[in-house]
Amino acid sequence: MPRSSYALVMALAMLATSTQQALAAVNTYNAEKLENNFLMFRKNAMYAMSDAPYVIASENARSVIEISLKFNVPPELAADPNTLVQVSAFPAEDYKYLGINVEDAGSSAEGSPGERLYCCSESMAAEGAVCTVPHSLIFSPGAHDVVSWDVMPDGEGEARLFRTYTIEKKGFYYLVINFCNPTSSEIEVTGETRWVNPYGFLPAEVYGFLGFYFYMSIAYVVASMVWTYLCGRHWRELHQLQNCISVVLAFGLLESFLRYYDFYHFNLYGTRSKFFMFTGLFFLCVKKTVSRMLVLVVAMGFGVLRPSLGENANKIAALGGAHFLLSYLHLVITQLNHSRALTFGGFLLEVPVVAVDFIIFMWSFSSLAVIIKSLGARRQETKLDLYVSFRRILVAAVVVGCAWSVFFAYCIRTNYVDLHWQDFYKLEAFWDVLYFAVLLAIIYLWAPSASSQRYAYDKVDGFDPRDEEYATGLEDVKKPNED
Fold it and tell me: What are the two backbone dihedrals, phi and then psi, of residue 74, each rounded to the nearest 5 degrees?
């Protein structure tokens, strides 16, 4: 594969996978099963009251993790004094101290070489090398900010915990629930945990999206107002391509507003509204699809050099439909996945999305090359300048997208996101900015004006498109010496 094509594929791959994850600040547990020697944990970024970007004007403003849980233990273990449920909260810096390698756990530890132990056994507690409380969670030396609550069941096998963990400094935090008892298979966990930031429920690592989509909505409103004014002022001069631009603007405005309200609702209630999340994703995919179709039909000269798409219309419709369906399915699955890591299923869905993107952009560049070559041969300077400018914009967008993709891949493969979590939203918001920048460039090039018809399709009498040398249907282009 040529190097330029490989770079384009990499950019499209990053663009296809960029999306926010389906986090939650109010986590509900409905009799969920927790097996012995397994950990049930949550991870969110939090601001402290002293370093939050915004604090609500209310006496209820706080930065805490509120825990309200009930545990159902098997009846046969209710009277066992060693039956222990443990809940721990700690900053992400202490996560590396969670558990201990079997080689470092003392002579009484049991496990395979290289295995990491999380539960303190009775023999390990008796030895006292790494832990002293049997059936508790192991933290190796070095963990300083771990707060743990031990919960013992009553005579009926129920245990309850109501606690509040106060956030003292910004960063990622873990909440871990563990049950270490080799004589029992599982327990049930019921209740909820609430991660409350000083401004609301929105996890700190995605707080930036709230402001970003607010300003993107304003930007689309301003662009739409200017475009509507120009269309109204020069409505007699409008042509088909400008109507397509109006549709793309409308979808972009609607998608930005829905995305903003999705995060606004999240911040207010602590969970994402499925309606606004899936509706926002729907219009996000619509925007991405119609934006690509707009680039493609512009590159093919629609409305300027040809009155219709001809036999290509069905191909473009099929390509657009495939892109929309694959993109929506991919986004829904990645949104429902709490991990930022690319799963095998997500990879299988990503490949066809990238393939369709690659076809669209390569078709666009090849069409542009044919149009520019043809217009140059026929010395149609006005339209030639227009399409040369458009090609420069697309090339610049691909180059910038490839560069950002390399940086994006670096951030995902390293711990950059954990270290710079406050800037995480910028990694994904960049693609929205790039979409909008390309759209603004198209708006500028094809803005309605008194001279818009200079760029509109104008059939030349006596010209037969079947004789077109490049077979592109550029029916308004005269051949040399045709007069």
Answer: -50, 135
Rounded CA gap, 105 and 99, in Å? 9
Q: What is the pLDDT of residues 96-113, one digit of tens each?
A: 889 888 877 777 777 777
Contacts of 97 (CB under 8 A, 6+ apart): 139, 140, 141, 142, 143, 146
Q: Residues 22, 23, 28, 29: is their CA dihedral positive or negative?
A: positive
Q: Among the listed ranges 33-47, 336-350, 415-429, which one has the minimum average pLDDT value? A: 336-350
Q: What is the pLDDT of residue 474?
A: 41
Provide the token pair at 102: 């079997």
Q: Each residue of 203-221: pLDDT tens digit?
A: 998 999 999 999 999 999 9
Across 27-36, 52-61, 374-383, the highest mean pLDDT is recorded for 27-36
Task: Give me the chain's average pLDDT, please.
Answer: 79
Other C-beta atoms lying within 10 Å of the C-beta of residue 384: 18
- Look up the pTM and report it: 0.79
Instruction: Please tell me the distance from the alpha carbon of residue 77 to that of residue 348, in angstroms, as a whole number.
Output: 45
Helix axes 274-299, 424-445, angle to 10 degrees: 40
User: 197 near 52, Cβ under 8 Å?
Assistant: yes
Copy the structure tokens of residue 483. Answer: 């007069």
Strand pairing class (64-72; 158-166)? antiparallel
Domains in the chain: ranges and CATH: 3-20+202-448 (1.20.1070), 26-98+139-196 (2.60.120)
Per-residue buried b or exposed e for 39-72, using 16+ beta carbons within 10 Å of the residue's own CB: bbebbbbbbbeeebeeeeeeeebbbbbebebbbb
Instruction: Quote the CA–CA distance of 263 and 199 in Å, as a whole number.
Output: 13
